[in-house]
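Worked Example 4.2. Consider the chain below.
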Amino acid sequence: MNDRLLNKNFLLLVQARFVSTLGQQATYIALMYWVMEATGSATQMGLVAMLGSIPGLLAGPVGGFMADRYRRKWILVGCDLFRAVILVVLPLMFWLDAPIEAILAYVYFFSFVMAASGSLFLPAAGALLPQLVPKVSLTRANSIHEGSTALTNLLGQAAGGVLYRLLGPALMFVIDAITYFLSALSILFIAEPARSNERETSDSIVRDFIRDTREGVGYCWNQIGLRKILLAALVVNFFAAPTMVLLPLLVDRTYGLEADWYGYFVALFVGGSIVGMAITGVLNLSGRGRWIGAFTGFTIGGIGFLAIGMAPPLMFAAGAFFTVGLGTSIMNVSLISRIQSVVDPDMLGRVMAAVNVLAMAVVPIAMMLAGVITDALDQNVLPVFIASGVSVLVFAAWLGFDNDIRAYLSGD
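Applying the procedure from the previous section yields the following structure tokens:
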């Protein structure tokens, strides 16, 4: 481990995430808008989003297992190269005038396998970061890392709507593929510290996987405060996860705006995230301050969701998206930093994967149901935002008064 926070290896990881996320976010806009324009169906949008969330549950434990047993650097490089290759097929289909049905079928496949690759990538990246910085700087490191990713989201999403209108989806997919190649190149230069438990594949690999996955889930379940947080997050994510998927309908149907405003709304959300991460980085929250930060973040986010659901004037809606991003980032950094600070580095990959699976287990169903319900409501997405706000505020109240949650976040 390096003694300085801003060392070469950490900066290379931040740089890699910055580059790949830039293209990824712009591409997401292109993908969802193309589906909306090609099908005119919220159900189809929900289906694409569902296929993009299922792999997190299926491949997440595999990602955690691999992150704890193999070189995390090479997992990241392999995922980036795979995503670049699978991505270039889409622009080829557009340029060859493939039938819409064929493109849509590939979009389903593409959404699934890209998300599966991401499910292998994220546990490895989350487990690699604590190896590259001093333990006392974990909160600041996460703030910088997540803040850099959020800044990229801001740039990619802000420009994504405009680029979709000017360049079209095909060229945006090409640019995204290039960013994955550049990300892999940056990660190649990271000097990953050796770990004592790296082992080669053996005849007992299946038993090892089952054991490691059970250990990750067991750890989360045995920490009472963490268990309660993850159960509440399960409910919150059921209502909140579909909001960004259905955002093109809010822009198009509720406000009657062009695709540019999808990018602007998401950019404001990400801008709020950057501010929230800057706050947590400067304050370097720990102990009771971490619990206060998580409670404050959830409360702010819930208020923002409720405000959007009321369909306020455009400028107030813009402010509400900023507020949601601000609260979400403060909460996420507080929780992630707490987990990384107490879990053994050799077990961190499987624990992070278990956290993701336990918190996101119902998201695929939520994505599909949200699309069907929105079509049934004549594509009115406002009730989805209201339900999200209510669920977040209810959890904020629980977080504020539950002794087990307070003790876990505070480190008591």
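The chain has a mean pLDDT of 80. The domain at 8-191+210-410 is CATH 1.20.1250.20 (Growth Hormone; Chain: A;). Compare this with Example 4.1 before moving on.
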